[in-house]
Design a protein that fits this description.
Oligomer: single chain
Protein name: MBL fold metallo-hydrolase
CATH class of the largest domain: Alpha Beta
Number of strands: 16
Order of helices and strands: EEHEEEEEHEHHEHHEEEEEHEEHHH
Strand content: 15-25%
Domain Metallo-beta-lactamase: 93-277
Pfam family, one: Lactamase_B
Strand order of the largest sheet: 4-5-6-7-8-9-10
Helix content: 25-40%
Largest sheet: 7 strands, mixed
Structural class: alpha+beta
Keywords: Hydrolase
Number of helices: 10
GO molecular function, one term: hydrolase activity
CATH superfamily of the largest domain: Ribonuclease Z/Hydroxyacylglutathione hydrolase-like
CATH architecture of the largest domain: 4-Layer Sandwich
């Protein structure tokens, strides 16, 4: 098979060597059995999002650099690095899944850069040429959303929780700046935030052809935009960042809300679960027990600090410290979680 590509570059700066700030980007939607078939579909002008690039061209489809594991029949999961986003991982720090049905394919989350999204697309095409009908975005965080445009170009409908469009619109500028700085301009080339075309207010389903995905929107918990996917074909729950494993949890919503939502989530009759980080697949509901414990300790320690009259600066250094040995990247996330918890609970 042949795909369309384009060289994209950072606008040249004085003294820069040719090619040192460029990368080859994939342009989905032009796949064909021959170069001529691919070339016949190429646009006359390069895509509008290009910063600085050449004319699109066609070449043989390469293999993906990402490893996906078939954790259940037709359900594939890529484990993102348990690390901070940087130039080496290009924002590939969260789990990504796709489900192959009889008529189409749904992708769940898209990675932290367009570059990651392109590699997900290639991994899918190694396994199926069925249409990529849907991209489900489990929440607003940049490591889950910046690859989305690749799938829109491939023809997928982007689906998210009802609060997601506003949340992304409010944060697009800051996410572009902060995440682009973390992973570097070259790795971030071509990455943009795109809004979902379809939103879920409560429960909906996607029929992929003999394979139904049950979507459920949740009240504010990890964030105000959380959405889960239950693959009814394999009874596997894809929880997004409502579930962390190994990677320290990140609280960006409501501690009380997350504890409540997690309790409800654990009552879902699934056999196994794919977390947003870690795993890649865990028994259910046992797989949620470490997170439930951590959130309980975070709650209890925060209340104790408030009761003792500790100021936030002192409380953030002690809250949930007993959990440090259970989580990777703990020191990067726990103080932030303590700050969010303290701010929420002090006004009860």
């Amino acid at each position: 098979m042949f795909e369309a590509f384009v060289a994209i570059c950072i606008l040249a700066s004085a003294g820069a060597e040719p090619g040192q700030s460029c990368r080859t980007a994939l342009l989905p939607g032009h796949a064909a059995d021959s170069p001529a078939g691919c070339e016949a579909t190429l646009p006359e002008k390069p895509p509008a999002w290009l910063v600085d690039g050449g004319a699109p061209y066609c070449a043989a489809r390469p293999r993906s650099r990402l490893v996906f594991t078939e954790v259940a029949p037709g359900l594939f999961v890529h484990s993102g690095a348990i690390a901070e986003p940087d130039a080496d991982n290009a924002g590939d720090v969260s789990n990504i899944a796709f489900v192959i049905g009889g008529r189409g394919i749904a992708v769940i989350d898209s990675g932290g850069s367009r570059q990651v999204g392109e590699q997900v697309y290639l991994a899918i095409r190694e396994r199926s040429e069925l249409p990529i009908s849907h991209l489900v975005v489990t929440h607003m965080h940049p490591d889950h959303v910046f690859g989305a445009e690749v799938f829109r170009e491939a023809g997928a409908e982007i689906v998210g929780q009802q609060n997601l469009p506003r949340a992304l619109a409010d944060r697009a500028g800051s996410y572009m700046t902060s995440f682009g700085r973390l992973i570097g301009a070259q790795a971030f080339l071509g990455s943009r935030i795109v809004a979902p075309e379809r939103t879920v207010h409560d429960k909906e389903s996607l029929d992929l052809g003999g394979r139904v995905l049950a979507l459920q929107a949740w009240p504010t918990a990890h964030t105000a935009t959380d959405l889960t996917v239950l693959d009814q074909g394999t009874n596997v729950l894809i929880a997004g960042d409502l579930l962390f494993d190994s990677h320290a949890p990140a609280l960006d919503g409501s501690l009380k809300g997350w504890r409540s939502v997690l309790a409800d989530l654990m009552r879902i009759r699934a056999d196994r679960v794919v977390p947003g980080h870690g795993g890649p697949i865990l028994p259910w509901p046992e797989g949620a027990e470490p997170l439930a414990r951590y959130l309980g300790v975070l709650d209890a320690d925060t209340r104790a600090a408030l009761q003792a009259g500790l100021p936030l600066s002192a409380a953030a250094r002690t809250i949930a410290k007993s959990e440090a040995g259970h989580w990777r990247l703990f020191d990067l996330y726990n103080a932030r979680n303590a700050t969010v918890a303290y701010t929420e609970l002090e006004w009860e």
